[in-house]
Batch of 2 targets.
Target 1
Amino acid sequence: MSPMRSMSSVSPKGPTGPKSPTREVVLTLGPATARVRTRAVLTVATLALLAFAGLVASVSLGTFAVPVGDVLGVLFGGGPADARLIVLDLRLPRALTAVLAGLAFGLAGAVFQAVTRNPLASPDLIGISAGAGAGAVAAIMFGGVTAAGAATFGAVPFGALAGALVSAVLIYLLAYRGGTITGYRFVLVGIAVNGALAALTRWMLARADIDQAARAMTWLTGSLNGRGYDHVRWVGIALLLLVPLTLALVRPYQLLQFDDDTARSLGMPLARARIALLLLATCLAALATSAAGPVAFVALGAPHIARRLAGTAGIPLITSGLVGAALLVLADLAARLVLDPIELPVGIVTGAVGAPYLLLLLARANRAGRGG
Amino acid sequence: MALRSNPPAEPEAELPEPAAPRAGAALTGRGLRLGYGSRVVADELDLAITGGRVTALVGPNACGKSTALRALARLLKPTAGVVHLDGTDIQELPARALAQRLALLPQTPTAPDGITVRDLVARGRTPHQRWWRQWSREDELVVDAALAATGSAELAERSIDELSGGQRQRVWIAMALAQDTDVLLLDEPTTYLDLAHQVDVLELVVGRNRDRGTTVVMVLHELNLACRYADHLVAMRDGAVVAAGPPAEVVTPELVEDVFGLRATVIECPVAGTPLVIPEGGRRVGPTGG
């Protein structure tokens, strides 16, 4: 690494001097430049550490506690043999699935909210999760998932992914008008699709036998119980593709938070950018849901929390993803420990924390005239 | 990996040289049919915007003037006819290339919550940036110049949510100026402002035209201010151009009655010598778009 000097490019020029200066650094590499905000970088680093700490705690705590030192030892390739068994074979896949699915939920929520300019748009409210739910329940009932196979990687994630994508296609087709999809129509159509798919799921549950219904209900609440390396690979490989694509669209993502006319007069091919971002967010949400179930609140709440933390204009993308990752891994840890030895589905924890937050949010949105 | 830094910024030292006045680009619309869905707002509409001049589109509510402006900015695609920017069909220009030459300030723009004035103005540089070149020395200078030109420099670190209506409008104009285009379109830039701030905004925009030769087209409601600040008036009614030309030639009692359905006396403004419309009040005459 060659030495790096940085330039603090913005200093307020008012006579009062720096009140709350936006500290930022411009990095230069040949003709390439990037603007980086100090606070945003600190937030991202802190959240990444928090998510990692959550992962370590989640692997360390439980019926057989593994000392943190041993956990770190195992994670970096050493550690005692019994710790290796508990960490690598039993707990790590679940914690990793939580981190990855949380990341996907957070990114998806940020994109949905930014692109629709609606603070309540999230996959749990606009039909994506309901589609995944219908698909998963169908897989449980008709996909030959046996009680023994329920905990392994089987038809359920595929069913959930297919269900989410089918419902997304339905929403796009119904919301598409005049060459593009407006955020408002997308949300309204999504809510309608959400209702229809929830009804379909209930109809299937009413016909299910009691074992299938119990398994379906657990899945529908959102649970990370019994996740293995199949799930980690499933989510991880897809994220390797989806995250870079999403980050590549960060500039359109930022401009879409302006009104349409302003975004377009700044040179944004609006219709294409919006559809591309909505498709990516749909894939991210569908993927996360297929691995963790329709966990409540993470996609909805992560962008709001991220915005408070980062102090930037609009919704910070990467920060939202990391908040989602930290939220889900910590909520799953709580779900395992709160009523130990009874293990709660993680969706109950996120729902219990998220519902009051959502009410607060609705009250504020109504005051600002955006809640409808 | 060789990371090196830009030279340190010297705040007060250098603002960009006042660019040599460019002959602002001309905009023409020919045979335009404009509408939303099946509703046709204007048909067979011809518009000629002279380069380097200030043009005001005036007319009663719903006469199609904002729609015409949106067509000039390519925000609305005509179902017939063509808009040329200095002879090039604007439909053939890539979005970024058009945005480098033509800026539009919508009537009620919205920005992400909590954005600071400087960040908002910096967004005006978007069409000049690439994902691998997010910020250049030139961006910095142009943004500083736009903040200075609009008297917004001391607001730079404030959130736009905290600003008054007049301040906020100046900041939005600063963003459009930072886009550094030959053509600047403004949709009712003075709406919701008191008279002093209306004058303020118009002087700012006209000053840009005088300094840089930027072609300015704005939709204005206030006929007297349009007469005062525009070189060229385009009066519209029911989606058609009724009269076009310098205010002193165009604005007559007959035109005001014809376009606005308002009986009025037109005198010479004692300050600027431009036409001054004095409404006579009383019964509205003639059918006009409401």
Note: Confidence is low (pLDDT under 50) at residues 1-21 of chain B.
Target 2
Amino acid sequence: MKDNVFSARRFLNVLRKEIAVNGRTLLLLALGLYMGLTIVMTFGNMMFSHSFEIPVTLLANVVVYCIAAFVFSIMASMAFSGLKTRGGRVDLLMMPATALEKVLVQALVYGVAGVLVFLLCAQLADLTRIGLMNLLVPTAEIPGPINFLAFPYNYAFGVSNYDARISFGTMLTMALAASMATYFMGAVLMPRYTWLKMMVVMQAVDIVIFVVLILCGRWMNATWLHYITDVNHVDGVGWFFTVLAIVQAVVCAVLAYVFFKRKDVVTRSVL
Amino acid sequence: MDFKENKAIYLQIADNIGDRILSGELPADGKIPSVREMAAEIEVNPNTVARTYEYLQQQGVIYTRRGLGYFVAADAAQIVVRERRNALMQGELDYFLGRLKAVGISPGELKALYEDYLK
Amino acid sequence: MIEIKNLQFGYSRKGAPLFSDFSLSLSAGQVVGLLGKNGAGKSTLIYLMAGLLTPDAGQVMLRGVDVRRRLPSTLADVFVVPEEFELPSMSLNRYVAVNAPFYPRFSMEALKSYLDIFEMDGAMPLKSMSMGQRKKSFICFALASGTSLLLLDEPTNGLDIPSKSQFRKAIAQSMTDERTIVVSTHQVRDIDTLLDHVVIVDRSQVLLDAGVREIGQRLTFGSEVVPDALYVQSTPLGPVTVSPNLSGLETPIDMELLFNAALTQPARMKELFTRK
């Protein structure tokens, strides 16, 4: 208790409580995720077991990446479930731990652990796919186990000097982190129907940014803007969006903490 | 306990303890419940019970032994009777005798009635 | 122990605030009754004392620390039992195992004695209990947490009569010199014998802030209608009144009468309690 910033013991107690209270639900969701992924992969294998121009493994990775982006944003918006009800807010805000510890636990469970669980489920689903395919359609072409981590980092983005290129994988990872952080922040601001609300907000924000960039480009005629939007300088684009993603991730994570600190048991009419 | 009388609660509790001493339920030199135990038993604030115990200690009805608690004094019963006698004499008796006079009951009648009651 | 200094708070920015320049001081070792009409802000005051709401101005200090900072040391010293609370799907024993580590002064022994008083079984799943049983379980934990400040918002709501009696026993047993229990209620008769101190609030004003002993010395509660009675209420057994105590004799406090008297005669009440 002397340490009022961060205490490992307290952090673990908060973590233990979160798992004890929500563990069963999370386990069921993980199970559902596993089953869903198995179905998708088995189905995909069955449909696309004939040769394609694009390597099947790449297709699988892309599909899984899209599912991942979707699932990660949902996971992140599931954080801070205690904030949904008044009684839950009292419980969460009165828990004897610092705001930092509470936020970190949420980030750990609904961010980091969520990602790891997803990868685990994907890998298990893939192995299950192999088993199922051998069982049901043994004659089809059954690719070996896919490594979901390998692909993105091998394909680099850009046409110019190799060193200036940013790998596709890095870009995508940062984009995922940014998305998760944004939905995580949304979970603090709008605990009820977070995901839906955040989706709407994000779409609106994306449209606004898009429009602003285009208008800027037209009016300012800035060379740097041309550079980063010019397809011939694709590495510039890569860097630009990666840095943007990192900034978004950091800002949203910090804002999540700030908004949580300011949270009261009853929201006032005007912030 | 029902606190329906018009006396301060701590005094009502004292009366209750006095009753229990006179009936023999709380024998001389016997231990009585601690302040907290008594408070929980009759569902009253411990500070009120503490006030009762202080009052009874002052009268000499109970005494404390450090670390052991509160005990009924050896002559507690006599003290209780004496205090109640005084209270009766000073308070209700006047009123009661006044009522008797108002309806015209003679001393003789009163004696007969009281003797009858004691049987 | 608890100092509320010049508190200002309102739920909406426009319109009159609920509390304006509100100050109150509570000492340790007391059971404080917080009385007020519905909407007077009892729950709001409880939330403010727990640091669950941010004041517009002023502060609430617990042992010299601003509760809104929500320092873990403060949070481990305060427990709130709100009117609506949530308990997870697990047994009370498991709940205790998960939550007790946060409270350094938690006592398993005390918990067991409260469970006995309430006749509760720790192994029973919380979700399969009735509302009243869940409330009693939560109260057991709250009392056993060993915090210096315990805030209960309408604790007897939803409890049947035997349970209210158990509640009184448990509160009486849990009191210590370092502990302050604040009970906000409009069912005053449920806890009137437990109170050390009474605070009556109405429209951001403190109508009464006095100890039970002082109230007994300054006011008489009886059935005689005297000319300068503060408040008279008709009952089937005749009138009951609150009047200034001229005889010096202490009478048991009728909290409901006291409450009504404070509400209807705030100026006289204030005057009666300010002169020596």
Note: Residues 11 and 52 of chain B are 6 Å apart (CA to CA).
